[in-house]
Design goal:
With 113 residues, this protein is mainly α. The protein has three helices and no strands.
Length: 113
């Protein structure tokens, strides 16, 4: 009888150890996936900031150039602002199709890898 009790106790101990190891493995996998997703987002954010600064510089130059051609500097800025108003309207209209769905898909794909 004591032998059966010892075997059952050993079995419960092994099951408990298995549960602890499985939980630790799950935590480590979650940390790995989170780090992968965050690092991908961080690298995209850095590239986006650099592109935004480049675009800002080009837009200021373009607005000054257009304004010089038209005779008044502020005309160039109004034309560039109008162009971006059209772009912003299109982005708002198609925000789900162009922004939300692709970002969600990318995050889900990274988490499932």
């Amino acid at each position: 009888m004591s032998n059966n009790a010892t075997a059952i106790e050993t079995l419960f101990e092994k099951a408990g150890d298995y549960g602890k190891v499985s939980m630790e493995l799950f935590k480590l996998q979650a940390i790995d996936k989170s780090a992968e997703v965050l690092s991908a987002l961080a690298s995209k954010l850095v590239v986006t900031i650099v592109v935004a600064l480049f675009t800002l510089s080009v837009n200021i130059g373009l607005a000054l150039w257009i304004g010089e051609l038209l005779g008044k500097v502020y005309y160039g800025f109004f034309i560039v602002a109008g162009f971006y108003a059209v772009i912003a309207t299109l982005c708002y209209i198609f925000r789900r199709q162009w922004i939300k769905d692709p970002v969600s898909t990318t995050i889900i794909r990274k988490m499932m890898m």
